[in-house]
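pls design
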C-alpha cells in the first residue's frame, strides 16, 4: 500500500513538472503557437502535449484560438504572472547580490532607484576597511555628473530626465550641455551596458554603474561600485565590471527580464 501511494505521489509530481514545462513553452512561444511547434519545443509527442493542453485549458491557464487552432496562455496564467510581478521588489531582490558584490570586491556598492528628484540611493553595502567612500542613504545623485545618473539617463525616456538635465546645465558650464554629445554618450552606455567615471563627482573617487531591468524591459534600478582611485580600478573591461554585470543580470533575471 505504501509503495502504491509513493508511486502515485511521484507520478503527480512528474505530471506537475510536465504541465509547468508546457506553460513555460507557451510563454516562450507567445503570443500563440501550433501544437506541432509546441511539441517540438518541449520535445514531447504531440498527443501527450495535447492531453496536457486540454487540462490547462480547463483550468484557465491556456486557451485555444478557434480560428487558427493555435494555443496561448490563458487568463489564469496572466493573473498569476501579474501577481508575481507585483511581488517583485527590486530592493529585496537586489539585497543579496549587492552584499555578495561588496564581499567579493571589498568596495562600497549601492543600489539607486529613480525618484522625484532623480537617482536616489536606497541601499548601501559599505566596504569593510579603513579607507571607505561615504555614500549616504537617501542621497540624490546628479544626472550628468555621476555614473549612476548617466546610466539612468541612457535608459529612461527623455521626458523623465529633460527637466533635471536643464536644471543641471543652468547651474554652470557642463561638457554634456551639448545635446548631440549627450546623445552620443547615452548610446555608448547602452551599447556597453555600463558606465564608469573617474573623479567626476568626487575627486579621487571612481565609480562604475550598470542597469537593472524589470520584466517589461524598463530600467528599474542602477547598481554602482565606488572606491578611491588609488585602490579601485573602474575599468569597463576589468574584473570588477564583469562581476557588476553578472550581478545586474542576475537581479534583472529575478525581476522577470528576458534579454534578447
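designed seq:
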Amino acid at each position: 500500500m505504501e509503495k502504491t501511494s509513493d508511486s502515485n505521489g511521484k507520478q503527480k509530481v512528474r505530471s506537475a513538472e510536465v504541465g509547468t514545462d508546457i506553460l513555460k513553452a507557451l510563454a516562450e512561444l507567445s503570443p500563440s503557437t501550433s501544437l506541432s511547434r509546441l511539441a517540438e519545443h518541449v520535445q514531447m509527442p504531440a498527443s501527450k502535449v495535447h492531453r496536457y493542453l486540454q487540462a490547462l485549458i480547463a483550468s484557465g491557464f491556456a486557451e485555444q484560438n478557434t480560428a487558427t487552432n493555435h494555443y496561448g496562455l490563458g487568463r489564469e496564467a496572466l493573473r498569476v504572472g501579474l501577481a508575481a510581478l507585483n511581488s517583485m521588489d527590486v530592493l529585496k531582490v537586489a539585497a543579496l547580490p549587492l552584499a555578495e558584490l561588496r564581499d567579493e570586491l571589498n568596495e562600497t556598492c549601492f543600489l539607486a532607484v529613480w525618484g522625484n528628484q532623480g537617482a536616489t540611493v536606497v541601499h548601501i553595502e559599505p566596504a569593510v576597511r579603513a579607507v571607505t567612500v561615504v555614500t549616504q542613504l537617501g542621497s540624490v545623485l546628479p544626472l550628468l555628473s555621476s555614473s549612476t545618473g548617466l546610466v539612468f539617463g541612457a535608459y529612461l525616456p527623455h521626458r523623465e530626465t529633460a527637466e533635471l538635465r536643464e536644471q543641471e546645465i543652468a547651474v554652470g558650464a557642463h561638457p554634456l550641455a551639448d545635446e548631440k554629445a549627450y546623445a552620443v554618450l547615452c548610446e555608448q552606455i547602452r551599447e556597453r551596458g555600463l558606465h564608469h567615471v573617474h573623479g567626476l563627482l568626487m575627486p579621487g573617487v571612481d565609480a562604475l554603474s550598470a542597469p537593472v531591468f524589470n520584466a517589461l524591459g524598463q530600467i528599474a534600478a542602477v547598481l554602482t561600485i565606488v572606491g578611491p582611485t588609488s585602490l579601485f580600478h573602474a575599468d569597463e573591461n576589468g574584473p570588477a565590471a564583469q562581476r557588476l554585470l553578472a550581478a545586474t543580470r542576475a537581479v534583472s533575471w529575478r525581476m522577470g527580464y528576458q534579454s534578447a
